[in-house]
Amino acid sequence: MTGWIYWLDMVGVIVFALSGVILACRSRMDPFGMLVLAAVTGIGGGTLRDLVLGVRPVFWVNDPTYLWVILATVAVSILGFHYIHRLTRTVLPVTDAFGLALFTVIGAHKALQLGSPGVVAVLMGLMTGVAGGMIRDVLARRVPMVLRQEVYATASIAGGTLFVMLSALQVPTALAVGLGLAVTLGLRLAAIHWRLALPTFAWVVTEPASPVPEQSLTPESGETPPTTRRRAKARVKLIRPGKRRGRH
């Protein structure tokens, strides 16, 4: 990994670790909980990427500087706890967006350096960008952002695909990295600002109408006529963003 790519990776670790600290503050965790969320967010995606690509040892075992950077990020965050706690609602999505953009490009770049095909490089960029955040959200008992209507994985795939295509065209690495970062970060920040979301599919149950008497079977004894029951209908329905969901 070249020098400036290495430092870009470090920045990504710091930003993602900070997002883990912020979520830990929102979840009222103790310092150890803050460290755990910071670590899984900062190095979780890269660890899975290296395991899938067969890289041994994984990057943070080979270079413990990553661990020290995470520890320092948590320590500084604890010292400035009151300031960070006030910014949790606004800073968390932004720091997460920067981390997503940085790790997407870093993951795709490393996969290409190891000789992986383009489609694999895009997937490795996606894994590096979203896996750590998924683990973080699960530990904090939240539905991961990548599994919600958020424009999250889509932004990563778009930026990673652009980076891989530019690399295949032998565009200078610095330019390819910059454009990949810009696309991923731009899409994610635009989704946050304008609350853009993807449509979802839901299993919607339609309640049956009130029973209707069977006129042909009306008895002469004056008894209550029998009724026919209509079964509830279930179908898959496309739920547009911002539209209230039905029962599912």
Description of the structure:
With 248 residues, the protein is mostly helical. It has nine helices and four strands. It has a two-stranded antiparallel sheet with strand order 1-4. The chain is globular, with a radius of gyration of 25 Å.
Total beta-strand segments: 4
Q: Mean of the pLDDT scores?
A: 86
Oligomeric state of shown chains? single chain
Helix/sheet category: mainly alpha
- Percent in strands: 5-15%
**First and last CA, distance:** 48 Å
Helix-strand pattern, N to C?
HHHHHHHHHEEEE
- The parts where pLDDT drops under 50 for at least 5 residues are 243-248
> Helical segment tally?
9
* Largest sheet geometry: 2 strands, antiparallel
What is the count of distinct domains? Answer: 2
CA-based shape: globular
Strand order of the largest sheet: 1-4
Radius of gyration, in Å, reads 25 Å
Helix content: 55-70%
Membrane topology: Multi-pass membrane protein
GO cellular component, one term: plasma membrane
Biased composition (Basic residues): 228-248
Transmembrane segments: 6-25, 32-53, 65-84, 91-112, 118-139, 151-169, 175-194
Question: TL;DR of this structure?
Answer:
The chain is mainly alpha-helical and 248 residues long. It has helices spanning 3-26, 31-53, 59-62, 65-79, 81-86, 88-113, 118-139, 153-168, 173-194; strands at residues 200-206, 212-213, 227-228, 233-239. Belongs to the UPF0126 family.
